[in-house]
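Handout, tutorial session.
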Amino acid sequence: ISGYDLTVRPARTAVYIEALNQSILTHAMIVSCCKSVDFLLGFLVGTTSDNVSTRWGRRKPWVVVCFPFAIVSMFLLVTPFPFSGDAVFSDSDDFPCGEIEPDSATACPALEQCLVEMIANGTLPAHNVSSVESSNPPAPAALSVWFALFYFAYYFFSWTCTMIPYDALGMELTSDYSKRVSLFSVRVVFQFLGYAVPNAVGLVLSNIFPTNIIAVYAYTALVLGIVSLAALLVLGFGVSERPEAKTGQGNEVPAVVAVRRALCNRPYCIYLFIKFPISLVSLLPVNLMSFFLRYGMKMEDWASLYFTLVLVILFASLLGTPLVWYLTRRFGKREVLMYVSGACCPFFFAFFFVPPQSFPTAVIYIAGVFVGLLTVVMFVVLDSMLADIIDYDALHTGKRSEGVYTVAETNLQQFIEVIGGVVPLLLMSAVGFENNGGCECGCGVACDEAYMRWKCPGDIGYSCDGQSTFDSPPLFGEVGRQAPCVDQGSDAVVWIIRAFLFALSGVCLLLVCLGAKIYPITKAAHSAILDATESLAAGGEATDPLTGKAVVRSAASHAQLRREHFSARELSLSSHWLKTQLSGRLLLWLGAFIAILAGMAASGGEARQYIVAIGAICCSALFVLVPWDAARLQVLLKMSRAERAVGPSAEEKDNSARS
């Protein structure tokens, strides 16, 4: 799945937007809608994974059953063969002069003479003709349906149904503070190897198909599918869940209660404050770097540098993993997170002010090293911190709820994908972004004719060999001219790319430093948390190491679980007023949902896609709020007067104090 991540995200823009000419607005709208629906499904998968047990465990069955569907969805998403088959298996012999083989990439007298004759008799357009008849019309609606179907299926089966149980499984393998650092360090090494596979394959394929990005990603997806099957066999037969973690017995906590308990966990709220910005820093280069290389640095051969840059990031990550592991064990998770983020922050602000066309390639690689180190910190330190936070939750609840916490991780990733993947596209479209720089082909999008490097309005790049190399000079016009497909009509497009890629990353790292500074669980505190948990399990008493207050667990009765659907303030209201409040909130959410749908339906023209994309983002919150209050209203209607009349329990008071 690590390899999938660094394949699907760049392939979305390179294949669907640039090569197949899907509207950037349509693309953003579909991503928003799919993320909104999947946002809700994640909570259901997480709580089900926590509460349902099998003879094989709670987590592994999810991975074994769902991951094969993820493999198929990934391949069909990256390789939309009904629409891209001709691009993968192209034959230029059917075009005028296509049967003539060039002597080399720089010498082709017979081909040049044929092209001169065809241009003279009007069969082919002149290189500087003002208008070119396009054979690359806007993408059909069927392509958008294909993208929506398999984009949703990919994220549902891979990230929601596979990664949530998989991450929970990793947190259950050990409860030792230092061993967790080692465990997640080893996992990170394999994770970066997974990242390296598609990029190493992509680098090789970009040299084999330098002007055909569709073929590069199609064959990369095929290799990933084969590797995925081997990885599934290793996990299925080589990893076992701990006996005490295999069962969900006694863990049947309703989803609303589980989430409310998590939100009362102050260290977890601080963790989310850290996780959001640092995840955004890791996501933005994957989503936007290809745009920056192409339209900012004006690179026609952007794909090879992109794959090389990602490999530099991964190489830096692999080298940095032992260093981060040592520093974390030596100084602590909080300190490493704070100082590494603080050291990288000024560089991102500096990168923002460097003019893109004067951006040295070496500086791009330096930025890649920083991203690699931050990625290591995110996976080694933050994942280990989350496991410690779950231990703190277990101290107060007596339950292991890895699934609930990891579902928030996955849903946070989904929301970050909207912020880092959809919002920049909407803004770029608003200021005049043109797919492939307004060109029919070129800059990695293969032209049907082998003798064309690019085909743009007002400029056709006839050359000896336009499909195998970028070094074949134009046969007509200025030899050293820049390919038009690296230009955007508006400079604002490049400014938006720079702002998100560098300036926003710098701001995010400042927020990470602030969150790390106030994070409370140190190594000593975690050891005290485990000791207190063992004391309670043995029938003794315990004190919360973070608050200094006695820990009192409530009996896990059905009546108590029903009460935990509500805050102490809500329980102090009369039954009538609480029902009125919940009913009013529910009607408000439903009314907002209907209003958004009506606005989407009533809008027209280009504005409709903006409205649908933004409306889908808003709906992601409503998809949570509506079932949240509906479930609480249903529980309230079942509660007896006696259950509501009981004063706040010890655990409710404890949750209130911790929150």
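The second record follows below. Compare its token runs with those of the first.
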Amino acid sequence: GGGGGGGSRGGSVGGSRDGTPKSSTSSAVKEFEMEKVFRIKDLDTGNEFLVDEAAADSMMGGKTLSDRGDGRGGGDASAAVVRDLQTGRSLTIAEFEASMGLSPLMREMHLREGMQETSQGDGGGAGGKPKPPKTAVDGAEKTKKKKKFGRNPKRWLKKRMGLVHGHGDDPASPSKQKGGPGYVENADDPAMAAIRAAAAASGQPAPADSTAPHPGFGREPPGSAIKVNVNRKIYKEYTELRLVQRIEAHQDAIWTMRFSHDGEYLATAGQDKVVRVWELDCDDVAEGASAGAGAGDGAGLGLGEREKGKISGEGIFKSKPLREYTGHTGDVLDLCWSHTNWLLSSSMDKTVRLWYMTMDECLRIFSHQDFVTAIDFHPINDKYFLSGSLDGKLRFWNIPDHRVADWVDIGEMVTAATFTSDGSCAVAGSYKGKCHFYSMDGVRFDYLTQLDVRNRSSTKPGGKKVTGLQFMPGDDTKLLVTSNDSRIRVYDGANGYSLACKYKGHRNNNSQIRASFSNAADFIVCGSEDENVYVWSTVNSFVPSINPMYTGYRRDKHSSYEQFAAQADISTVALFAPPEVSAARGGAAAAACDAARAKITGKPTRAAAALFKGRKGSIQSPSMRDELDDLASATTGSGGSGGGGDGASEDDGEGGEGKKSKQLDARAEARAEGERAFASGTAIGKVIATSGYSGEIRIFENVGSPCWL
């Protein structure tokens, strides 16, 4: 997140401590009086900004930051000035907030949190005197003491300096190109150099936009190869990732995007308040194959219910939307599909709207008391749906009766909600980092338990905002939780919702970014505030080459991922397409995937054969499947002398051979799991859809076979 620095007086000439020049005439005082400015630093990127008082008042909702008697208090957005210290470029309020990664929902939550803290402080002191706020806003004076360093200040400083040097050492960075928008001549004090340059250039045109991406990035044509970086993995699965399609979907940022269950449609929505539905670009069926069926009769059917051709073109979706739904008066925050292709949309206008593919108008409007941040159809009966709102209430709606069947107040702002696959349990995530579980007794909520989503070593009472919830496909005991501490966690309900694994690598401090499983639960994908998309294998198969005993390595902490640059700004959404989309691919893409599956080679070990345990059906390479069959039978016949799990001997003497052959140690098991994933080739043909602040949808497809590194 961005951190706010204390304000300071402008540089007055020969002035006193309060910025008033030493002059006997009032005209001289007015001539040299300087406005109050604030210096704000983004602790994640190191970028610094100068914000004048008008801009600060505008960002605080029009409230003045200090008591003024000259009648000039209040925020005037037109007179607001925000200046980037690295480039000297003037920014608008919208550009500044976008660069800090603050969505309208996050700004609203921060504002409410500040108002709540202020109201708690008023009247809470001794003698009826109000308590001072936690941090003074005016000037550099603060009532809150400076926070001490953490346990390891050296590591903290090394990490921050690494981020700064990594940005400055990039030869393509604007700050390294003389005459470019990011060039700073005085390297000793870049902040003061930028201030002097901005003052000298007052009245001149502003420099070029320094927030633009590197030359060439973001303008790749469809079919371009995308570089994929690997972190802490011994093999690479997305070896030939291609950009297959770009769609200018919205004019502003896209906050949410959902595939229909059958993969036939993709719904998108965001800041422009419009819901658009995109259809697969399948070839027309043969003449007479669907005779007598009108064009509108099959619009609500999926791929499995009506005959469709293959996607023979390079793109996957049609360039024009099938439907454009208007009616929302605020940002659309969430979307949800039913199994029968009904569509729900929730918005900051405090409503949920119901749509259907064969109709252009809204069918039902469900009003709430506050912003609706999360919705989910009941997985069994699509006549009901779940909604979560910032008023702290979780509601269970009856669509035909157009009323609330039941509701519960969790006491915190609801930011995420979902059902289990059978609808027997509902979960709500809150702004304070908690998950509340309720069993669904018919149409009634019955409290079960709650879960704190935070680091176990943290001393703070609460956690960060929960931005996404999803149960693992095929296993309702595993819950995927995304939160604003740049962590993704999987909790195991079979063990009292204990932490099963924690995934890290992406950045999610201020955005409503949510992670999601692939259909087979073999991968987890998530967007990030650093423009990239991150993909983790669900099972951590990496073990350091040295003894994990000395590295503190744990398999439940997962930082082995593959990443690629997906957007020119914040990647707000990243989703795996359903398997029906990959199955519908034809032409050159299908041929490339078939060739990649045929290239899968490698000699699996007996440990890998033991780990498969009947899962050989997921292997897409026939030769690899035959090798594993032969190896498994050889392992069983030899009594497990090579260390396989299933073929272990019954000798359990204290010598250790029988005990070692019965159970794989952590290193061998991790290596075997990597070989199993390698042999499966599940990443071949994977389609990933992404979106960001630019309003553009970019779709990527992997057509390469895995390789060892």
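Points raised in discussion: The two ends are 35 Å apart (CA to CA).
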